[in-house]
Amino acid sequence: MKGLYFSQGKLALRTDLPMPQRKPGEALIKVLKAGICRTDLEIVAGYMNFTGVPGHEFVGTVEEADDKGLIGARVTGEINCGCGTCEYCERDEQAHCPVRTVLGIAGRDGAFAEYLALPERNLHQIPEYISDAEAVFIEPLAAAYRITEQVPVRSMAVLVLGDGKLGILVAQAIEILRANVTLCGRHKKKLAILNGKNIATLLENELKPGKKYDVVVDATGRPEGMKKALGFVRPRGNLILKTTIAAPVADIDINHIVINEISVIGSRCGPFVHALALMETGQITLEPMVEATYRLEEGLKAFEHAARPGALKVLVG
């Protein structure tokens, strides 16, 4: 099997990978398209000490499954695979199972290969009106929506720092729930994707010193992002952390957090059902975020492209 394999600090294209061996209750999926996200770039920089096939944003077709009704279906899948028996899994919180595997991130080969395996319970069939390119965004859109389950956003002043793919999705997901959203970034081209939407956009040098927001989301993907974001949170406001990086985080003055009673909330994966519902509204801009598509055999070039400053979504497949 062909695929991209990361080991000992190097990402390589291999043609000798073994086919995934699905376990009972799992499906074998032929990958149609997979997206490169910031987490993938951080993995090849050493994040999570991962070895194997990276990639967790994907769309594919089921080739083998215990549930015969799934065979031939076009699907995507939730990336956390819990043990099914611990207290977290019993509460339907397998994203926090202490022995979970995570597709392309921890203990489970991912989507930058011809095939992958996932538990059938993790799969979601994709409606016909969603294209393959759009379907790749279901996972990050679910992660963006997760914020709205953690803090109230309706009528709140929300600042999203970072105009990467996730930041653009976060701004859209929160705005649909009637928040007053400002997206701040470094690239006019990226900010322009939201032209015509009820979302204010600013370049970093246009942020007003001293202005405070009810909710600030760090989606910068940079070590200094949390410290910068903290300076814009009002007293008793919420700081939401979306950045996961291999590099150390900049020094944080915890006195500022304590004195101003700021809630700091980590935010990770969200339920796919909500992402699919958001996409059904037709209000989420997705395909203009796709900058390039490479064949799997060109996967190393795809990663080089995705790592360029200001790059939008790069797909493989």
Summed up, the domain count is: 2
Order of helices and strands: EEEHEEEHEEEEHHEHEHEEHEHEHEHE
Strand content: 25-35%
Measure the end-to-end span: 14 Å
Question: What's the total number of strands?
Answer: 18
CATH class of the largest domain: Alpha Beta
- What is the makeup of the main sheet? 7 strands, mixed
CATH-assigned homologous superfamily of the largest domain: Medium-chain alcohol dehydrogenases, catalytic domain
Cα-atom Rg, whole angstroms?
A: 19 Å
Q: In DSSP terms, counting alpha (H) and pi (I) runs of 4 or more, how many helices?
A: 10
Helix percentage range: 10-25%
CATH-assigned fold name of the largest domain: Quinone Oxidoreductase, Chain A, domain 1
> What is the residue-mean pLDDT, rounded to a whole number?
96
Low-confidence stretches: none
| Assigned CATH architecture of the largest domain | Alpha-Beta Complex
Helix/strand/pairing category: alpha/beta
Overall outline: globular
What does this structure look like?
The chain is α/β, with parallel strands linked by helices. It folds into 2 domains: 166 residues, Medium-chain alcohol dehydrogenases, catalytic domain (Quinone Oxidoreductase, Chain A, domain 1); 123 residues, NAD(P)-binding Rossmann-like Domain (Rossmann fold, 3-Layer(aba) Sandwich). Helices cover 23% and strands 29% of the residues. The strands form 4 sheets. Strands 3, 4, 5, 9, 10, 17 and 18 form a 7-stranded mixed sheet that branches. α7 links the parallel β14 and β15. The longest helix is centred in the middle third of the chain and has 13 residues. The chain starts with a strand and ends with a strand.
